[in-house]
Design a protein that fits this description.
alpha+beta; Rossmann fold; 4-stranded mixed beta sheet; 4 strands; about 30% helix; globular
Length: about 120
């Protein structure tokens, strides 16, 4: 199992290329897969910020050693990349795995696609 947590949004190249490379590192058979966790590009608060006219995504930083997020993804985009790289999505979930409180949690729990994070487990076909 490869844990690819809070990483894919920092890539400056296509996830399809990186996922295809990671697929080659996996041994065939049960238990061979990739766990991806990443921010949800379409989360509730990002949508609210856009509605208010503010870009919810940080600018690429000037520090080449720590450029920040190049691209955040939606669940559908990650599923498409996974299939293109020869994976099957075994598990997917819109998550709120960062601690939070307040009235927004009620909204987030009712509407999973608005949650702050995405988790996927990919297995080789």
């Amino acid at each position: 199992m490869i844990v690819f947590s809070e990483t894919i949004e920092h890539l400056y190249t296509s996830p399809q290329i990186v996922l295809a490379f990671l697929a080659k590192l996996l041994r065939p058979g049960p238990g061979a897969g990739i766990l991806i966790q990443t921010p949800n590009a379409a989360s509730f608060w990002k949508r609210v910020r856009l509605l208010l006219g503010h870009n919810p995504y940080e600018l690429i930083r000037t520090d080449r050693q720590n450029p920040g997020h190049f691209r955040e993804y939606t669940m559908r985009e990650l599923e498409d990349y996974a299939m293109q790289a020869g994976f099957r999505v075994w598990f997917r979930e819109h998550c709120s795995y960062w601690a939070g409180s307040g009235p927004a949690n009620a909204i987030l729990n009712c509407y999973p696609p608005f949650r702050e994070g995405l988790s996927l487990v990919l297995v080789r076909e």
